[in-house]
Fold each of these.
Amino acid sequence: MSSASDDRRDRDAEGRARNARPRDGLGRPLPYGTDGVERQPEGVVRAPEETVVEAQALLTAGKPFHAHEVFEDAWKSGPDEERALWRGLAQLAVGLTHAARGNVTGGARLLRRGAGAVEQWAAEAGRSRPYGLELAQLAAWARELAGTVEKDGAAVDAEVWAPRLRGGGS
């Protein structure tokens, strides 16, 4: 039995429940009628190089939540042997999202989990620089940010802390 509130849920074109509230640059819902940041389309299949370029642009713009959605598309649509790589990169972007939102514990945990995931994938795949990604540098960046967030106990600026996926640190 559904309640009246269930009948008023936002739905996407396929009828699936999907919150249509506008979002800010960190993916937080805003009140209806507020101008928000355009949402990242979901389910887009991109070449790996396109994924890296688009995610980097979003990270540089201070939109790690949106970058995580790009990485999530890659992990869901890419080859099975790369799923753990893209999932780890998505965890890094979500970790930065949480750190920027002020969620110290969740941000640090996801940053470390993502760092471990990309390092493990690199070791198992024997590839430290897939698609030009500097996985060792990304893992070091994530651990540094996790430590900073825990030490300071405060939100960070996602734009300032945006990693360079293809090298150069943060």
Note: The two ends are 51 Å apart (CA to CA).
Amino acid sequence: MRDAVDKIGELEEGLHIYAAIRALPERQHDTIVLLYCLGYSVGEAADILGVSQAGVRSTARYARHRLREILDTDNRTEREEK
């Protein structure tokens, strides 16, 4: 039973992360999906997005920062509700 609870928690966390990714601006969303969900390299993502590799790295950095903000705000809200 304990393993089932852990799996449910993992699923909830995964859904929470994907919801945060969906909340990103389009370019940041696309960059995160290509790099971290689909596993493309920076070079491959740059080719797909039609930007430089430096542009992909920069966009990913801003996206990760925004994701931290979104997830931290969501976690803070959950703690306050309890």
Note: The CA atoms of residues 72 and 78 lie 10 Å apart.
